[in-house]
Amino acid sequence: MSDIFISYANEDSARAQLFAQAIEAQGWTVWWDRNIPPGRTFDEVIAAALEQARCVVVLWSEASVKSRWVKEEAADATGRGILIPALIDQVPLPLGFRRIEAAKLIGWSGDSGDPEFQQLLAAIGTVIQAKPKPVTAPPKPPVGTGPAPRAAKPWPVIYLAIAVAVISGALAATWLWNAERGGTRDIASTASSSDMAAQEAIRTTAKPIADGGKSTPAQTPIPVGVAGKSKALPVRRLADSAKIRTRNTARPAGDKRWDWTVFLEADSATLSNIDCVEYTLHQSFADPVRRICDAKDGFALSSNGWGTFEIKIRAEFSDGSVKRLAHTLRFN
Q1: Is-contact 106 120, C-beta < 8 A?
Q2: Nearest-CA neighbor of 93 among 116, 72, 121, 62?
Q3: How confident is the model at residue 285 (pLDDT cuts 50, 70, 90)?
Q4: Is residue 88 helix, strand or coil?
Q5: Average pLDDT for residues 259-263, to the nearest whole number?
Q6: Beta carbons of 311 and 329 less than 8 angstroms apart
Q7: In a 10 Å sphere around its CB, with 0-12 CB exposed, 13-18 middle and 19+ buried, how is residue 255 labelled?
Q8: CATH 2.60.40.3600, domain 241-328, yes or no
Q9: CA dist 232 to 22, 224, 276, 319, Å?
């Protein structure tokens, strides 16, 4: 987990490195290097680093104000209250980010004594102090390593046995005395009620002994008209259950180039719940991010090129949920 996440456009990587080195010199950890380890995807690594950061520094420049990725990262940080913006080119900030004062570091060359940079560090310190690192709970000791529970003393059982013996002896003596005087019917009734009392005493006394001396209180019923506490069911969003496949068609266009079309394949109900689909093409395209909001032919996108590559797809549903897909363009 890094203290600080630096958001920047690829064109500003050299300047981002200057900021990272100067901030790390203050003792904080910084995530800024976007090298993706084998077996991980770009989106997965970026999302994890952004989520774990305690502060996000956004470098606004001519390139980053046009970057959808930088604006998404800045929006996430704004929602969490951890955004610290820095202006490194003289450009107007994107809509939605103009109310937060940015450090004026246009032309900054790495001088840690610069007053504006010192203000940036102070702002970072304030945010990080307000977002302490989570405290990890100490591990629980293995089962069986703690002290053994103390066994319940047998005295209550002994006392109970003595009480039952005394009551039984008294009942027997009374029965014999009344039998000699012909009063067996009344005594039988008395004995029956006494036996019930003794059995009740045994039942109520034996229960705490049976469960280790701990009585279980009766549960109080919830009054009619008062809502009880129930576990909330998870909200199921449209993107969670959507089953979507990606396909493409291609035909030769001459000069080793191909005309191709990529589209989504799903049932009509799923397609009707999608508002727009965003395709991110290879960076060699002049406008790599294409947005299609027409459901015709499965939100089809057509273009032309000579090489195959992976297309990142973002399906936006009417309930606000998003499903991310990837499609490898094929020319066969």
Answers
A1: no
A2: 62
A3: confident
A4: coil
A5: 95
A6: yes
A7: exposed
A8: no
A9: 47, 21, 31, 20
Domains of the chain, by residue range, sit at: 4-130, 155-208, 241-328
Mean pLDDT of 295-311: 92
Q: Whole-angstrom Cα distance, residue 305 to residue 124?
A: 45
What is the C-alpha to C-alpha distance for residues 231 and 3, in angstroms, rounded to an integer? 35
List 103's β-bridge partners, or say none: 86
Please calculate the CA angle 183-184-186 and round it to the nearest 5 degrees: 75
Radius of gyration of the chain (CA): 38
SS3 261: strand
User: What does the DSSP assignment read for 170-197?
Assistant: HHHHHHHHHHHHT-HHHHHHHHHHHHHH
Cα 241 to chain center, whole Å?
Answer: 19
In our burial notation (b when 16+ CB lie closer than 10 A, e otherwise), range 43-62 reads eeebeebbeebbbbbbbbbe
CATH number of 4-130: 3.40.50.10140
Q: What are the structure tokens assigned to 180, written together?
A: 């000699």
Q: Burial, 315: exposed, middle or buried (Cβ in 10 Å; 0-12, 13-18, 19+)? A: buried
Rounded Cα distance, 58 and 82, in Å:
11
H helix intervals, the chain? 13-24, 42-52, 68-80, 115-130, 155-181, 184-210, 238-241, 268-272
Assign 58 a pLDDT band (cuts: 50, 70, 90). Answer: very high
**What token pair was written down for 194?**
């006494």
Whether 75 contacts 94, CB under 8 Å:
no
Share of the chain above pLDDT 70, in %: 71
Beta-carbon contacts of 329 under 8 Å, excluding residues fewer than 6 positions away, are 248, 250, 260, 262, 308, 309, 310, 311
